[in-house]
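User: Structure tokens for this complex, please. No commentary.
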Amino acid sequence: MSDRAQARPLFDPLIVRRAIKDAFAKLDPRQVARNPVMFVVEVGSGLTTLRIVRDLIAGHTANLLFTVQVALWLWFTVLFANFAEAMAEGRGKAQADTLRRAKTETVANRIVSDPGDGVERVKTEPVAAPRLRKGDTVLVQAGEFIPGDGEVVAGVASVDESAITGESAPVIRESGGDRSAVTGGTRVLSDWLKVRITSNPGETFLDRMIALVEGAERQKTPNEIALNILLAGLTIIFLLAVVTLLPYAIYSVTQADAAGGFASSTPPSITVLVALLVCLIPTTIGGLLSAIGIAGMDRLIQHNVLAMSGRAVEAAGDVNTLLLDKTGTITLGNRQAVEFIPLSGISERELADAAQLSSLSDETPEGRSIVVLAKSKYNLRGRELAAHEAHFIAFTAQTRMSGIDLNGHSIRKGAADAIAEYIKSEGGAVPSEMQAIVQRIAGAGGTPLVVANHRRALGVIHLKDIVKGGMRERFKQLRQMGIKTVMITGDNPLTAAAIAREAGVDDFLAEARPEDKMALIRREQAAGKLVAMTGDGTNDAPALAQADVGVAMNTGTMAAKEAGNMVDLDSNPTKLIEIVEIGKQLLMTRGALTTFSIANDVAKYFAIIPAMFSTLYALAGAKAGPLAALNVMRLQTPESAILSAVIFNALIIVALIPLALRGIKYRPVGAAAVLRRNLLIYGLGGIVIPFVGIKLIDVIITALRLA
Amino acid sequence: MTLNGWLQLAAFFLAVFVVTKPLGILMTKVFAGEKTWMSRVLGPVERLIYRLCRIDATREQHWTAYTTAMLMFSVASLLVLYAMQRLQAYLPFNPQQFTGVAPDLAFNTAASFTSNTNWQAYSGETTMSYFVQMAGLAFHNFVSAAVGICLAIAFIRGIARREAKTIGNFWVDLTRCSLYVLLPLCTVGALLLVSQGVVQNLKPYTTARMVEPLKVETPNDDGTTTTNTVTGQVIAQGPVASQEIIKELGTNGGGFFNANSAHPFENPTPLTNFLEMVAIFAIGGGLTYTLGRMVGNQRHGWAVFAAMSILFLIGFCVVYYFEAQGNPNFNQYGVTQAASVEQAGGNMEGKEVRFGIANSAIFAAITTDASCGAVNSWHDSYTPLGGMIPLLNIMLGEVIFGGVGAGLYGMLVMVVLTVFIAGLMVGRTPEYLGKKIEAKDVKMAMLYALVFALSILCFSASASVGPYGASKINNGGPHGLSEIIYAYTSATGNNGSAFGGLNVNTTWYNTTLGLAMLVGRFLMIIPMLGIAGNLAAKKIVPPSAGTFPVHTPLFVVLLIGVILIVGALTFFPALALGPIIEHFLMRSGVMF
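Assistant:
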């Protein structure tokens, strides 16, 4: 898990205070009606309250303490569920408040005329940021805020994006390529940028982000809808069971009276029937369902990932195939030199010396690693070379080699075929020995860099991809979760295979072009699989859109961010694994609490049914009726039994709020093992815990003389 | 409980286990349209039927078309059976010259046989002519069973197919099922029964002279009594064997005679009893194997078989235990209820001596596990908890082997719910054999469960407080409530067995029970086929280590848990006021 996950205490007093207030506001029947289970509870609460009012007016005060308590706890049940939802929303709202602070009112410098050669001659006019339209171009200079989302059209600058990402290190933004997207509300630290605005006010990334974390745009996800249907169905079934219980009871009472020999009894009151109904319907999951969903999104935000829809979070849990870019995800961003292999007749030191010389001006990570290796292995120090002595040859895409001309030597290093060309052009011959070494290194997954001096090949530098630590274990966990990992790389198949083997991925796609990526996704999807991938470039956009879960890097282009259904603000491709885990955790939490909720009913029946019919068919003179035998918990009185069940039913919602917000513990093991464990805890636990809880509450309320 | 009893159970269960695979393979072949060894003879018949009925055997149907075909067929055959009963007096093969059946009873019986319920508000030997028995009732025994099997196959196709629009052709399935599965098995079965003494004739009833004339005293209105001496006994006859075998094999349960399988002409020997019991579970068991074959996961088929078997064994053990215990109140009168060489022991009220406790208990358990409803003992006379199990078996949805076809599709709807509830816990949106279970599937499954609970609870609650219902019970107290609840449970579950003790041949009961049967059959089939059509259209997600496994012992336990919890939670209040309270009252010496 990301160590930068923004830790917010689960019960932040500020959020709790606001949630308590919201819980009451949410009692509005129009709001509760969206949740069929809680709606039934609210109607029941209203019904019992009305009965109390009626009894008071009629002057019936018998049993009033009991009825009032039941009614109160029924209201609490609704309130607790509302509180859970408000808590989950509150965390998002708090996050949104922080974001809003970034949305300061800035004045933008809209470019009126621009000769196109820097900043000096640009004419601008001041415009309030919210009045900028799509297509406007603005100039942002050091110290100024970027007024809106856009694309850099000119300039290079370091930008502080901490307001959005929380990352304090500045990032470089420049025109063209994959680092051209800028976000409104971020600040230019040095230099200047010309930015073409790409979104209208109110539609900026920041606006969307605020709406997302606030939950304003929250729609029920497919699985949540399905679960809601199940819960509504169960509610209706229990409603039937409870409603028909009254005629059965009337029949029984009539029969007992007619038979004679039994003490008189009465059918259960409406209050008791409502209490039974509320205990039976799945209030625990019904009350926590939306909180679980909101908290799942929130957990992603804590990991600095923005999901554009809840659907994407659910899909993440279902992912079968992960496409991971090799560079930056599986391996460290760059290759490192690990060995100098001289050709026969040349000493290793000689090769190292030449390699180092050729790399002194090479500021690429590979170049630097050659200098470092030469220094650490052969104690060759980097030399200061005066410009007149040496002529550096920079790497170009055409020549595909770099080097140095120094004291009559012309040292070149580069890809084997490029150097071979060079040697031939200088009139030399390519030794077969060199080809053999090159083959060997490539076969082992390394990158061979050949070093030559004029027409003479000196030897080969072995550059190697360094697989990030701990990746092998991660991939093993993913495999146990049933997820296939595919490494995407531009390397040749030989190199790719070697790295794939070392990293422990299941498959790889070598020499991958964007269209190959797309084809792979389509192929997997045609086989019924769900695919997740990360990407940042504009050429990734089609694949990001095609993938079921497409995570765009925040550093990426606007096109990539638009195409994906998640944005990782940290731009950390490894995070895909965490996203999958959060998706799974979300579904597991729902399943566990549903199972728990339904399993709870067993104990509630054993508490309420004997209490309801405590005197039915009681033999004249006997203290209790035959159904007292079902009172396995030995609850004190019928009133205390019913009350205990209702109180347990309400309190369990509160007790489970932390679980709903945090999600149940996730372990990356196979489905069978996860199922066994969760069934034991939430299934069996769901049957046993209420027996203990109800008994405990019964003891307490009896001691307090509440029933 | 005796060793002999347990051995009987073992023999029975072994026989069911043995026939499961061959029957499963046969049905897989038949419904895949493959040739079987019977094709040489029956193939031309099959093709002739298609030609006469203008059926294009190669054209498959969308689930809605499949449903419509099934409904049209059922409505038409229901009307024919109704007319046949009403016009009985004008039809042939009526040696006893029975008159037309009353409208409410005729409706009830037509609904009953069309819905594979075979609830009988009449006595066969005093109401129905041989023609109605053969052309009306036995015909329905075949086709209602075949319809059930077809529906289960259509459901399996829905699971097995990927991105398909169709789930088979109803007319082809119906024809092939009747021709290749039911007819051959019944021909063999009927002959076996005849060999044991089950009658098969079209003779008028025989009057036998009694060895010892019987004096019957009838009280007159003026207080005096009239004494009649009975010297002869009318022995009912008829084409029994041919109807008997399909009664069990097709889990119909409608007896030729009122006494059903307790009648010596229906079930004369322990061997016929054994055969009949195996026949009740045979197709239900075989279909689990067919399921495994068709979805390409044989272990899943066996897992479903295991869940059914365990539920059956639990139920049987409870019935057997309480029936073998007998009634504790008898002990004070010095009545020995222990099993011995001379007697079966236990609660023998309402049971045949030739079957004893064990075989009555097995029969009671399986006839309600499956939606058969044939009985060889009187469930009304069982001990409260012994009698509760047959009731509970039906309440669980008759998914324990179940009615032919209906049991399997009922079980599969439970599997869909199980996978949905618990499947989430593996961290994926629930999927069943690669098919994602989504809102629409859950909606249909809940509708299925809802219709069932609605029909049972509302009708019985209404009957328990209305004068039209409660006044027709013969036993008061909780037992009377059990009788009412049992009647509607049996009707809605399409079981057809009666608890008894309830005078159901009244307009109210005939009408409402008839409605309950139709609701319990057809209103449940529609959402079920909806799931099938929906599943068929889906992609198949290939299984992985992260997929919810549906073939492990854990799955079996989970499935049983969901069936028990969902079923018991729905009906626990009703059971508490019926058999459960009666049980505790019996223990304190009060009986009803």
